[in-house]
# Entry
Amino acid sequence: MSFKRNPFLKLSLAAPAFFALSAAAQDTSTTGVELSGALRTERNPTPSAQCRAIFEDQRSLRLRGGAIPFVAASSHARFRDQWLVTGSPTLVWPPGALPDFFPTRDEFVGFILTANGVVQMVANPVRGNHVLFPRVAPSSRGWHALLFESRFPDDGVIHPTDTVGVWYGEFSGNRWIGLKPIASLTRARFRPEYSSQLMTNSSGDLAFAYPMSATPPRADADKRGLVLLRSSGGRWTADTLWTPQEVVHVSLVSGRKGNSWDVLYRMRIADSSRVAPGSLFLALFDGRWKTSPPRVAAGTRSLDRPTLFRVGLDLYATWSQASDITADWANESVRLALLIDSATLAASSATVVARAAKEFTVTQLPDGKVVWALRDYGSARRLRMAYARGKGITSLGTVNLPNEAYPHIIAYSSSQVLILSARLGAVPNGRPVEQLLTRVAISCL
# Structure
């Protein structure tokens, strides 16, 4: 890997740039140092306890007056006993709407949710343009938020030449505080859904990481890598890790020491005969980039949706993986691996969380346990669940609830999770969509 200063990072938004930081933000890209270690052969799960998921209650979400909200949730954060849930699209239908009614869109970036199903919509503060896949994190006054302003709607079409404006602000529950543009991205193939969550550390610093690559007709269209956008004391800076191949997914957690950050990313690997679907790499940023060989080598398998999380001082990752290059869902599985053991600095073998599974949502409970909800390919009305404390995987069985689109899991307590799911309407007489909030308990003998 090469570590060069990013020529696309500019201090002024006025100058045409691949990535332009606003105001006092600067690029602090540095050279890197290699780490060693790679993942060993996978093994099968070893259950750690006799546990099961128990359905507790379920509510259909409605606004005051009966309007029908829907958020394709991709980010959430808790403040006191409320969650700010954001995603694209965020839609609202009028009371009594039928499936062929057109919803209100682009007016909202998400909603505030309580555990008993009370919903309050959050207005889009960036008027005149679309805001895609906002990222949120808790703050002392409510929530931090990154908003990605685009000229194009969330229509499922990639717009690689789009210019994306990045806005930062805090939301108190009823108003935006300090909302301002902090960066501009041009011709970046920017896909916020492939980027990390907005993360905080014990010092109150913020960080967000995303894949980037230049696009034709630029002469430098071979530029590849990821950018770590971070804020300390209200000052935003950007640091670029250049990579030989395209980075596709990025996940991020706070590092063990000081203001460091651990970054997990999927990068396609090319050799003389083929391009592998992608391998997982781990990097540390502590003022300098430190990288390692592949932690999970792809071979001919596809890897998708890698997510990094910390349990104590150890680093874990989960992802979905195909056993071969076919599209048969039966060959898919969701896996877990210890990437760095804090005592030995070594990686462990991968563990299968669930077989015949690809689409999943995952959260970490306050006590460190990790809980998965996995779509059951056999039924759109059933979710399979599992949890892990450390390397041991425990199946929690299944929970019957509609999950026809965008299930999203939220940690509620050390023994409970909330699941946002959706039931799509049926023409001509059904509702257009019904978003459900289900509370599930984890009971262990």
In short: The domain at 17-23+32-444 is CATH 2.130.10.10 (Methylamine Dehydrogenase; Chain H).
